[in-house]
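On clarity, I found the account of how folds are encoded harder to follow than it need be. For illustration, here is how one protein appears when written out as sequence plus structure tokens.
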Amino acid sequence: MQCEILDSTLREGELYRFFSIEKKLAISELLVETGLRRIEVTVDYPGRTSYDDNSKLVKLLMDHGVQVVMHGRAFKRDVDAMARYDIHGVALYLAVSQLHLDYKLGGIDYSEAKTRMVEAVEMVKPFGFDYVRVTYEDASRLFMEKRLDVLDDLLGFSRELKSAGATLISIPDTAGLMTPKDAKDFTEYCVERCSLPVAAHFHNDYGHASANTIESVLAGAGEAHVTMLGIGDRNGIADLYEVVAPLQDIHGYDFGIKREILSKVYRKFSRLTGIQIPWRHPLSEEAKTIRAGVHQSMVIKKPEGYMPGKKLSYDIESVRYAVSPYMSHKLILEMAKMNGHDLNEIDARRIVEEIVRRVSTTGKRGSPKELANYLSEALGRRISEDIVRRFFGEERAYILLKLKPQVDTLKLTSELASWEEVDSIDEVYGDVDIVLKGKVRINGQNLVDKLRSSFPHELEELKVLITD
């Protein structure tokens, strides 16, 4: 069965961090760039969000051919609000577990919950939406608590919802209760008994959301919900990359997503929003850094030995090696060779031992310039800093920017978000306005010099803190 990816960064993701309309529009452009075909947004709630802002967002996405799905409650106020937009479809949610019926919905009974759902679907039918999703909020709890009589009744009830105009049933793991084996079994159970395709929406409370979503897709889910970096309520839902990349690379799925640009889009998203890519994420800087000496000695020759081949093709411009007590002397041999120096293994081991001694003593790896100077001294021949950077990466720094009062901060940060040498951007309050983290040099250009030359009239003060 064909599965569609639904991105919910602009709906579920906003439960993690609220974005201004300007940021939402910029994020929308990034999502469109990936080739995503279905994107979810939240219905407007006056006083918090506005119809005018939502309309701008919807128009941008629809103009790019995206199927826009608007999310709201199975409730007349939300249905009326969603009907005002020119969108592809709607998602109507209502809780189904006894826990939620009692403590969230004021003690309504199960039959009333079903009545509300079918009434909401009937309300949207006149508007002719191509997509009408009904969400059985907290459905996974019924499976985990073995309330299969209730779950079976709900899955049978999908026939009535289908007759009323529903096209999809979402069976979310609202409280993040499941492991991948549970997710597989749950999805198979629901797919077999449901009259409509099912949608997978897994929360990350145990860190399984992405794996659960993959298992659900393999088990027959017709739609999978993801966000950029997995952002969402609590610690989020499935991560777009962590779901799409393995399903495309390993299992051969085609979601229409441009796999080769996901790494670039993630870096842009991180810079634009200030949400850093965690060190353990597959697209982090650490993900392309080899630390163990025995690994380093092989990766120099054949990186596929320790990294997936398609990640190397799509996500990693160049492998990096850590300067650590475990580094391989093969790195020194390779750098010497690239520098035109014939070094023997004994000398290479001696140089590594000295580097390890320095790292162990100071706790710092040293800058590319310092390493180049030491290697030049040890080899008796000048070694290029560029060669050192090729192996060990760029020096990084925190750059503190104080802006002049009249500066448009949003415009400036949007410009910085397009710079590849910038890792993250945080707007702060106090003595500085923006904190950047980035590579000090890239392609021979110094980031500090570039900032000063690009914003000569905007910067009041600039401070640099080098980080190891």
Observations:
- The radius of gyration is 26 Å.
- The CA atoms of residues 227 and 461 lie 36 Å apart.
